[in-house]
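Page 47, continued from p. 46.
Same chain as before, 337 aa.
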Amino acid sequence: MALRSFSLLALVVAVRESCFGVSSHSMKYFCSSITDPSQGLPHFVSVGYVDGQVFVHYDSNSRREQPRVSWMEKVGKEDPQYWDRETQRERGTEEEFRESLESLRLRYNQSEGLHILQWMYGCELQADESKGGFMQLGYDGRTFLIFDKETLTWVALQPQAQITQRKWDAIPGLNQRHKSYLEEICIEWLERYLSYGKETLLRTEPPEVTMSSRTEVEDGMEMHVCRVDGFYPREIDASWTRDGEVWLQDTLGGSVAPNADGTFHAWLSIRIDPKERGRYRCHVEHDGLQEPLDLALEEPKSHLGLIIGCVVAGLVLVCAIVGILAFIYILTLLGSI
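Result:
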């Protein structure tokens, strides 16, 4: 498959996938093609993301590039031919993928069946205005080629990829155009898309931070969980500190995950000696906060009250049942008179 030059309108924005970090904006584009799709599923799908949000979509069933967010309608109003051009571009990519899958199957000497080709590329704009970008291909679940924009060469991750590597590297000016796209054109369109969707993409919503804890029965150690919820944008700095310093020992953290309303949530836990509880804090920094939060650990709540309540409730229930049975017995006796 020969990579064609990207048109100015064929851009995508992507978001950084890391759990925690400084605020950034990005655009990513994912294309996948499979040789033997399940019944009804498309054999080719192309999806674009802006800051982790799907904003454009194309597949071989609809054969039409379509917006997935309301703010992308502004593009069509400014450029009425936008969606037609993007549709034609995607149809061409779909055909290239179909041909490439067959070429790779023969190159690997594989039988017909299920095979998949993936193409991923995108760019990122950090809060400090530094820029990043990537472009790579995968085949059957393994990385096939990666573009090194610093050396202007493709890196083959499999022996079979060396044929494509030499072919692409030999095309005059092609790799320089890839670099220019990732560092300039992609960033320009990222900024344009951010302006289109600024009410959604550039908003800030502070996290709600809650703490929970329990005492381990077997050794008396305490487990504390710090949960951050309802924040936007995705990037957040959350960590456990001990005496004011970041503490990684005996800690666990979950990935940042989306909520149904478009915000995000995450959690991190720590296991400590209760005698040192006062030394630890849950430290949270986010664009939506005016200043960082440092939450102290609380003593785990006793379950004694709950246990007593359950026992009392159980006794009341037993008494009620006994009373009902006694009443039924009396009625039975009366009925026998």
